Amino acid sequence: MADAGPREEAGMKGDPxxxxxxxxxRDEAPATPAGPALPQAAEESGEVFDLVxxxxxxxxxxxxIPAAPEQRRERTSSTTSxxxxxxxxRPSRRTPMVEPEDAVDVVWTRGAEWGPSLLVLGAxxxxxxxxxxxxxxxxxxxxxxxxxxxxxxxxxxxxxxxxITLERPVRMTPEQAVRxxxxxxxxxxxxxxxxxxxxxRTGRTCASYGSYEGFKSYWVEKIRTIKxxxxxxxxxxxxxxxxxxxxKSAGKTRVEVKYTxxxxxxxxxxxxxxxxxxxxxxxxxxxxxMWYLESGTLPQPAxxx
Length: 305
Hints:
The protein is an alpha+beta fold. It is built from eleven helices and four strands. Strand 1 (237-246) and strand 2 (254-265) form a beta hairpin.
């Protein structure tokens, strides 16, 4: 069998013949893109993917995406809350930290409280002893015995401030300090010196007084006014602190408390108090770790909060 030519071989294989004119009019197959095709799932879901590779190759950063309004509001609110929290953590300007040495320059001591009374009592006893010795030397025994009796009575009166203050004023809490302060008034002869020693520096100077003598005169006049014509000069008043309200003092150097001061006449307490005052006072802690009042006057009505 003779060798077939190229045109005959093409016809036998079913391919168009070489040089056939119909090859010029056949559609060319579409060219396959060189880049990777997008996933089919993305095309079906309709999601659009940003081609950041081109921006990275060009050396440019992608444009910033603006935050949603909700995110901006959350950032603003969080910033505001942080600033308000910082302001709350700052120490209050109205209640500055006070050093104990600056707030209380004179602390309570037994010597400071009893010192003046002991001096007077000692002078009285020494005078009595000298008089009795002289009278005994002159053999005036009856007169010496009379002087001794009178002198002992005088010594008992002079020792009264000591007898009513045998109990130490332990003021580990502000409430104890307030009660001890007014408790010193509830005697036939109020112990003004103890009250004076329980005051801080700011409590010893005000418009009503500026010294211990002025402080004593202030309270003598207040007691006389409260009694009026309901009791005699030697009838004591009873000062009771009730409805005490105040924050815990642990770890603090200054506190402010509120209370009700009820004043009644001894022997007439069943008739009820002659005065009831709602007041407030601030206290500071001294170098001895005890509490001292920053006001020594009769409390004014408390401010309504």
